[in-house]
User: Fold these one by one.
Assistant:
Number 1:
Amino acid sequence: MTSPLFSRTVTLLALLLAVPVLVILGSLVTPQPELWTHLLDTVLADYVINSLVLALGVGVFTAAIGTFTAWTVARYQFVGRTLVQWLLLLPMAIPAYIMAYSYTGLLDFAGPVQSQLRLWFHWSYGDYYFPEIRSLPGAILMLSLVLYPYVYMLARTAFRQQSGSLLEASRTLGLTPRQHFWRVALPVARPAILTGAALAMMEALADYGTVQYFGVTTFTTGIFRTWFGMGNQLGAAQLSALLCSFVLLLLYLEQWSRRKLKFYQQGQKQQEQSRQPVQGGAGVRLLLLCLSPVIFGFLLPALQLVGWALERLEQLWSADFIQLLINSFSLAALTAVVTASLAICFAYAKRLSGHWSLVLPVRVAAMGYALPGTVIAIGVMIPLAALDNSIDLWAEQQFGIRTGLLLSGTLVALVLAYTVRFMAVALHSVEAGLMQITPSMDNAARSLGESPVGVLRRVHVPLLRASVLSALLLVFVDVLKELPATLLLRPFNFNTLSVRSYELASDERLADAALPALAIVLIGLIPVILLSRALDRSNRGAT
Amino acid sequence: MKFWQKSLITAAFTTAAMAQAAEVNVYSGRQEELIKPMLDQFSKDTGIKVNLITGKPDELISRMQSEGRNSPADLLISTDVGRLHRAEVQGLLQPVDSKVLTDAIPAHLRDPKQQWFGLTKRARPIMYVPGKVKPEQLSTIEDLADPKWKGKICVRSSDNIYNQSMVAALITQIGEEKTQAWANGFVKNFAQPPKGGDRDQIKAAAAGVCDIAIANTYYLGGMFDDASDKAAAEAVKVFWPNQQDRGAHINISGAGVAKYAPNKAEAIKLLEYMVKPQSQSWYAVTNHEYPVVADVKWSQRLESFGQFKAEQVQLSTLGELNAKAIQVMDKAGWK
């Protein structure tokens, strides 16, 4: 029934992408009793508890903010709605560690907010209580503010694709709008919301920059402490493997929670869902509610960055800076296309066969999202260099030529690492879309003589346009912000905006770091705007 | 000879010449801003092209290790001695025999086996708020574990390599047991749970959170150059601890030539270039680090922090004791 060539190729690709994660898991074979005794006695409990609280907190907050805003924008017509619906995507463009730096700058004891309060009320240190931003709750807040757009984007697409007849049916059965939301719309959109929240939680587990700066000890800080501080790379890999098991559990729970959920939308919506107009004060209230995540997640930190950047404008027009822009942009665009294409193939192959030999490597590869970028980079670097070195040795023995390093230290290694790291984002997005297409579509197309690959090309891809665009956008922005893998795998003399910005920020020169950071945000905005318009159009086109 | 033959031969020779054009590949743990200007000057002076990758020293070491004998790296630059030692132990460096280097750099600031060389010194003194603390009250790092400093000290997380090296240096000098006892007391004196970087500790002291901050001098120097941080920098003064006994804690940034360096001669040339007086004073002016070469003039800012006696630990031992230092800090509850 399935095309063997297609599924074999896809299985091979999935296995290839699973290698880096398998390299990490392979570390478990060599036990390290001494290290683990020390960790258990001292810090491991902190790592586990803090990581779990962080991930859960981020999951709950992103789900709440994302669902609320998505529902409001999808269901109500209020003043400023068209603007707000893409403004809500903006916080995604801000790297979490930059957010952490700028909020610390604002809210710190020595920052403008507290200084002003002291000036007004003649307080001094110890006279008053002020919440500490550099703490676990602070980290949850920072990460939630930059990660809620994952939920928002997926949930908005899901709410929009719910056909108008669904609402009519619940009205006919006597449900109030509120009941319709809780009992019909929310359950139907649940896979999308859970997917978004799961992505946010994975990203939170992998975060290093924010937690490290805030002094919160989590698994990731533990991994780097073990590796760099104790010089124990194996031990660090084992901690990463443990982190992987968390993620596996998370993914399993997500799958399990929707085991009985199968909702298919009909390919054509019978009727466009009309938005309920909300006028006057109530409309303004909705606008302000929707704007608040934008203000806290984008406007405030961006203003702080602008303030810093203005002090350092002279770096702007160096030829070097323009090269940084080009590097960052092209790398992100290339990776987005590669990753999204692979994700479509994987998701479709799973739909066709669902055999474990395919599902397992895809699942393993997708775990890369929850691992810190450095760990993935090591997982890519080790097998790639081993491959290069054995080719070199073989060529020398056979022909007396040395080939040197063919792939290591090239952009291929870098794109491969990004693909492993961000496959989950693209895959979840595409799968969520694919799940809503009823299998009777496949059957109809096949019975009309289309091949499986033809069904993908001529039926699914056009229907999936919105999901594929989200996948492209998410990966693009993620690569733009990505730092650790870039730092480790890049070729000679190759720099990106995030590398530049991080180097300066990690040297605590925040003012110098602001301009490249701002450039990341601005380049990130271009696809956010373009794609959100494209999403609008494809949505209108589908009706 | 026909024209096309001629041009073919010319082309072949040109490419061969281009392939041989001198270059050197640098893996730098020192970030681009703080190395590139000097490398550019080196290229200008010598005609040797420099290819650069920056990153965290440990990651660069991992990269060299996995690249093996095909690694393009010629020179590994690190911002602390522990990592150079680690690279040496893993067999990634090779000994360099250069009179220029041994003459310029004091023996305790380079590897006894000549595999790495210190290029700048980085000092980690005590910084205090005048008015709250009198300099007479301060004496040694050990004294900061005394209960009289309860709630008065700001220092960053033990994740940081500067703290790890500082504790490792204590272990070599006063032993593990005493260091553990010291760390237990020191942690009890923290004004707040460790967070932020070195600059943040200085800012916290300036704002009144604590009376004493531990930070590297170049962070303080950098704050004077930064409009938004200048006021905080002016609020603290530098105190050099342990001047009556072993001296204040220092670390070094340094470099070593890679074992499989394809351009060894150029790499040595670059190393030697880095200890020239003009390069040494460049570090001092750009990033407020202390030169390793004796008679190089300090920047005005460094002069203002005062002269000091530095500890004379054999720096390679710090690398060996780093893991032990972390365990000590973990046990003391130093976050």
Number 2:
Amino acid sequence: MVGYIWAFLIGIGIIYSLISGNISVINESILTNANEALDLIFNLLPIIVLWTGILKIAENSGLLAKFANLLNPILCKLFPDVPKNNKALGYISSNIAANMLGLGSAATPAGLKAMNELQKINPQKDTASPPMITFLILNTAGVTIIPTTILALRVAYKSSSPSEIILPAIIATTISSIAGLTLDYFIRRRNKKWK
Amino acid sequence: MEIISKIILPIFIIIIVFYGVKKKINVYDTFLEGAKEGLITTFNIFPAVIAMIFAINIFLDSNVLTFFIKLLHPLIGNISLPLEIIPMAILRPISGTASLAIMNEIFMNFGPDSFIGRLASVLQGCTDTTIYVIALYFGSIKITKIRHALWGGLFADLCGIIAAIILTNLFF
């Protein structure tokens, strides 16, 4: 999927600039692109390293687990089909907690384990179960409290107030999560009626 | 409102560090351990960043976008949205690196404190790579019939994008 889009962007860009006689711009762009990528990585590096260091403390001290526990009661309500002491709920809450703090690398393993546990209680192994869909909608709505990469780039480009976007981003992400979950709720209810 | 945005980060850090000290873990060594992991992660994403910056820049520098927008003009009319945000909104659910590359481009051309710079920041922060996550998570347990997971996720993203546009107008 990403491969096709990547090829599409390059293909359409080069073909269009050949047609429009703009090819010297593209030539220059190709030669300078890699440097720009290196600048981007160097801009991101310091804050990502700092934040993963801080979050490691949260992880090893058990704060992340405690934070995940706080989310548990809310999650029980969102996943009525999952038994209350099922392992999946624990993994789901660690996944969401890690995502919220911008700890993507810790979120993915927990998310995959959650899917694994949900698959164990899934009656149709090739079809997504309702809890899986709810989990993915919640996960992809991307509830992030600390958007580290964005902050890093804003600092690098000398924003006068790098963190001013945190609150609007949190509100926007909350709105998209609620919208996704509401849609999911109504689809689930409609499907139940049909049965 | 602005003060809330500004105190979130310091509050998190003081809570995390204080809790670590209270639980008697070696906060300094733990920090170094995590920072090292972050260093490795960042270098691991470097090839993807090069790949995406390369493709996105060829696409943007060719001006083909203005051509597309002209084609679409009769359909969408005069929406007062900066052009550069459209490919970002389209690519955001597919690849986090691609939208990051566009955000970088926007910051470079317009600055992070411009309207489009702020909009790009809120947009990047409020949604996730829906299509990628769905492919990865369902692929890992071999589920082929994903029912409404994809368009449910994309619907949430769309709401996020609309919310981002409205909130950026309200806040700044």
